[in-house]
TrEMBL record:
Upper classification of the organism: Bacteria, Bacillati, Bacillota, Clostridia, Eubacteriales
SUPFAM superfamilies the record matches: Cell-division inhibitor MinC, C-terminal domain
Key word DNA-binding present: no
Cell division listed as a keyword: yes
Protein's organism: Alkalicella caledoniensis
Annotated protein name in UniProt: Probable septum site-determining protein MinC
GO biological process assignments: cell morphogenesis; division septum assembly; regulation of cell septum assembly
């Protein structure tokens, strides 16, 4: 498997891209693959590039990506890449795959899954879970007992959700969904709402 030249970390304001290489061409190539893997999911996305020195060449290449894809980028020099974060559960793993029926996969940290979780499949993570496709199976964030996390999916359909030790279920909603949904814990109860509504509430 090709070794990634960066780590992605999701925040409310932007996706932080922590660059681990000085090979600018390789980084740009992999970053573009990351965007193209599921363009609908990153439509209008904001990315902060961290850990690489700003230069005219870098700015030009990022500008070219912005002209090709509906994203915005910003090189943030005040933030430095911390190599100790590589083993931190705060970091986001990203994987391009579909979890099929009978499969159960566990990730250490947050995870962005560029694919679906089919009925009978299960995805677990010690941190939060973001799914760019349809969630039809089981999603368990905060595995086994971390309540400070959330689950996001472009579509949630006939799903069992688990946050830490809390369990809920979702009926068939995908037909009516116009935007991604988020499941989060509030007052020991799993709440499900649209991303825009969640952001308005500031929860």
């Amino acid at each position: 498997m090709k070794r990634l030249t960066f780590q992605a970390k999701g925040t409310k304001k932007a996706v932080e891209i922590h660059v681990k290489t000085e090979d600018l061409s390789l980084f740009i190539s992999q970053f573009e693959e990351y965007i193209k893997a599921n363009l609908d999911f990153f439509h209008g996305g904001k990315f902060e590039i961290i850990g690489i020195e700003s230069s005219l060449d870098l700015e030009q290449k990022l500008s070219e990506l912005e002209s090709k894809y509906p994203i915005t980028t910003k090189v943030v020099t005040r933030k430095k890449f911390d190599p100790t974060l590589l083993n931190s559960t705060n970091f986001t793993n990203y994987h391009l795959k579909t979890i099929r029926s009978g499969q159960s996969i566990t990730y250490d940290g947050d995870v962005v899954l560029l694919g679906d979780v089919n009925s009978g499949g299960e995805i677990r993570a010690t941190g939060s879970i973001t799914i760019s496709g349809t969630l039809r199976g089981i999603a368990h964030c905060g595995y086994p007992n971390n309540n400070q996390c959330f689950i996001i999916a472009s579509k949630m359909n006939s799903t069992q959700l688990r946050i830490g030790e809390n369990i809920s279920s979702v009926g068939s909603q995908s037909f009516f969904q116009k935007e991604a949904r988020i499941a989060y814990l509030k007052e020991n109860e799993i709440k499900i709402t649209s991303i825009s509504e969640w952001q308005k509430r500031g929860e």
